[in-house]
Amino acid sequence: MYQVLLKGQLPKALLIVLLFMCILFISTKAEESSLFWGLTDSQTKYINEHYDGDRNKFFDTFNADYDAADERVKAIENFTMYDGERPDEVLNPVIQAAGGGGALNVEMIKWRRDMLAMPGVFSETVSGDQGLFMGLERRLNAQEKFDINLLSNQEIMRRSIKRGQNEASIYHEKVPMYETALAQYDKVDPDFDVIDTYYVDRTLDYADNDYYIIILVALCVFSVFSGCAQSKVSNQILVSPGGIRLFTLKQIGATLTVVMICLIAYFAGSFFILTAGNQFSAAWGLPIQAIVGYENIPLAVSAGTFLVIHHGMKALFCIMIAAFILLASMLSQNNIISAMLSVGICGALMLLYNSDIGAVRTNELFGVQNKIAPLFIGGSKLLFEDLPYLLIGDTTVHYALVVGITMIVMTLVLLSLTLLVSKPAMKWRAAR
Amino acid sequence: MSELKFQNISKRFGKKQALNSVSGVFSEGITALLGSNGAGKTTLMNIITTLLTPDNGNVTYNGTDVFTLQKDYYSILSVQFQTQPMYKSYTADEYLEFCGALKGLDKKTVREQSTVLLQKFGIIDARKKKIRAFSGGMKQRLALCGTFLGDPKIIILDEPSAGLDIYEREELKNHLCTLKKECIIIISTHIVSDIENIADRIILLKEGVVEAEGEQSELIEKLIGKVWQVPEEAELPSGVASYHSDGRRIVICDESPCDGAVMKPADLTDVYFNSIAKR
Fold first, then answer.
1. Do B89 and A8 touch (CB under 8 A)?
2. Is 0.90 exceeded by the ipTM?
3. Range of A81's domain?
4. Into how many domains does chain B fold?
5. Same domain, residue pair B88 and B157
6. Is A424 a domain residue?
7. Number of domains in chain A
8. Distance in angstroms (rounded) separating the CA atoms of residues B273 and B190
9. Residue B21 banded pLDDT, cuts 50, 70, 90
10. What is the signed CA dihedral for A38, A41, A42, A43, rounded to 10 degrees?
């Protein structure tokens, strides 16, 4: 029966995986993929060649180069060539960006052409200029953040080495590791290409992928039992020799398999984005102390190991959420109510997540937040923001095992509860 | 000879007394539960299938309470519900595989029996199609295939002909007749033609009580000489109700109700109307 149930749920799971992949590619820009495949886009290349920390100087250079390359002249020529004949979808944004509106008229075209001839206008359209500057700004921000974080990481390593040498503590043993890390940091080229994945203002942002995966898991799970009640299949199951509990068990098994498929898609996506973002391969092997949030943690864990633990915790958390929603689904005989309950559960968790309880970046090792953080998949957003800069922001390695066991126990309790209530719940529905 | 017996069954839903101390026996053959909507047929079926527990009374199979038999009872029971319980995302084959799995059948048996049943009910060509693409009649036929899967000993059918055309109804009747020697078949319906000529016994339910019970011929025999076809425009004595059957105005009473009334042979429809109209 497991196979039949799984077969019934697989199309939904595949649809969800497809949706997830769509989110991944919508939220990841083409040039980031190019970076992943070893190509460098022209803007990043230009910044690397000309930016040295002084923005005004950089833009002056850019302006001069733009004129020198006759780009402004080309833009004016292009505009003139299409004068009055360009399609509205191209011109309307120009008019709107210039504060205009309504129908296109000769004055507006003339005004636009005159504006193109002004110094400081680089591209063919105002919106094009805006896009160009936004792109440059993003890259500059990313580069600056990388530089700052690189410096701060070098400082952390020096501090750790000093402390290790001075204090008779666990840090003492780690001195060679810190020295290796510092040496690695020192080798990093300050003009290292960084991506701006996490600084782009988009409707969908891959840094929020934890939200997406929870929503997808909820979508996958919420109707499992309520749908069974709504379609009256529960009546058929109640009068089957296999019994309701066996069916529930197999249904749970099939559902969790589907959840695992979603998680694999999620991890594959995470791997893609992290690999695309982290061009400094040595980062995976760096000690966890190379990360600001873990500076004081007396643990010999590499960033890569941490990432594995972190994703393991997230997988457990997703399964726990699925168990929660399965229970909610069992208690409701209506898909809509079940969906609302699921949204309520996910919403509450997201509120906690956003309240910084789950994503506290703190050095207080024994802080309460650290103990409960994994329950809210804490720090994941920070992780995705910072990994390209070698700053994995979370504080939960110490408690991974304890919290992991807690999550497993909670999941088992929830699933047992689902099994226990299955017969009374379905009987109650049948009585109605 | 097996015996499925329900004794003094009562069930109340809030203020409504759905069943009031009803009793009866089912044995091999076809027994029809006949009654108008709200008569308590589905409630009785749900109690017999153990989906509902009665407020009073019990249901026994060969002397043992079905609520204690549980798995042994379910392994010989097959129910076709009024609302077809199906996952719409399944294909016909997957649905039957699911039904087979619920009944504990192995895949090979399910495959073999499914092919025969799908062929019999004329949906073999749609076996790979999703149920959501099925018409109401196709779903009903598929539900019947699921019900007959696994050679059950007790078959309970709730409004089995809903959505079926005349040809399909006859097919269903034929199939039931081939099974009735070895199975207890209970059909709940308010459509007399569904069970006419095939039901061995009839239980007529009205407002939660058994109004009449017996073999079809016995029930019909009681009305011989009491069924009258009357002219459309004829005025009837007070307290005498008429109904239409096959386009004819019919009255059931002991004596000729009016001028022009012609006595006609009684049939099951008359039994049904007599039972429903009786106050």
1. yes
2. no
3. 41-176
4. 2
5. yes
6. yes
7. 2
8. 11
9. confident
10. -130
